[in-house]
Design goal:
ten-stranded mixed sheet; about 210 residues; single chain; 10 strands; alpha/beta
Length: about 210
């Protein structure tokens, strides 16, 4: 199913339709402030496992992120943040950044059986954040990659739908996405370290 949602003024009825899909254990593809992402409700383990199959990875090797609404939302899923990490995230979010943090006990065992960290995102995108707010908990997410030798990420939602229509329950179209992923900060050590340079200006954040 391809659902078109306005990127700046998301229609409530279409957002509600997407949230109903997530709550029922569905898998969707939706826009973020960087690239399109595959996502599901964190509380549906079978849906998370389904995303892993779509990506062709084993669950213990999956590097999925949690898309949250804001900093207060993510506090349930990451251990107590030190002051410097909190200030860094407050400066950067919402924005095109992923923060690797020590996972709290609230994160399903699915994510902490092998690893003790979790990626957290608060994208600067009205559709993504509205979905999380309406859902009431984070969306487990991973990037939509492209098989093209030149482009790493698919940016056209209609092409994404053509490729994934038999694998996911809904594709949200909100115009062309970007083809640069988020910048990743590893905040599990004494100092935050950029482990992937992507979208977003790092200078002035650290």
């Amino acid at each position: 199913m391809l659902v078109t949602i306005h990127p700046d003024n998301p229609q409530e009825n279409k957002l509600d339709e997407a949230v109903r899909c997530l709550r029922s254990g569905g898998v969707i593809i939706y826009p973020t402030d960087t690239i399109y992402a595959i996502g599901c409700d964190i509380n549906h383990q079978k849906a998370v496992e389904r995303i892993a199959r779509i990506k062709g990875v084993k669950m213990e090797q999956a590097n999925f992120s949690l898309v949250c609404y804001d900093l207060s939302h993510l506090s349930s899923y990451a251990k107590q943040l030190d002051t410097s990490t909190f200030k860094l995230m407050k400066r950067a979010l919402p924005g095109p950044f992923t923060f690797i943090l020590p996972a709290s006990k609230e994160v399903p065992r699915l994510f902490t059986s092998k690893k003790k960290t979790i990626g957290i995102r608060v994208p600067d995108n009205d559709i993504a954040r509205s979905l999380v707010l309406k859902l009431g908990n984070p969306i487990v997410s991973t990037s939509v990659h492209d098989n093209d030798d030149v482009l790493e990420y698919t940016t056209d939602p209609e092409l994404i739908h053509e490729r994934y229509k038999d694998l996911v329950d809904m594709v949200i179209s909100a115009g062309f996405g970007n083809n640069i992923a988020s910048t990743i900060f590893d905040c599990t050590g004494e100092e935050p370290v950029v482990i992937r340079h992507g979208a977003g200006e790092v200078e002035g954040l650290i």
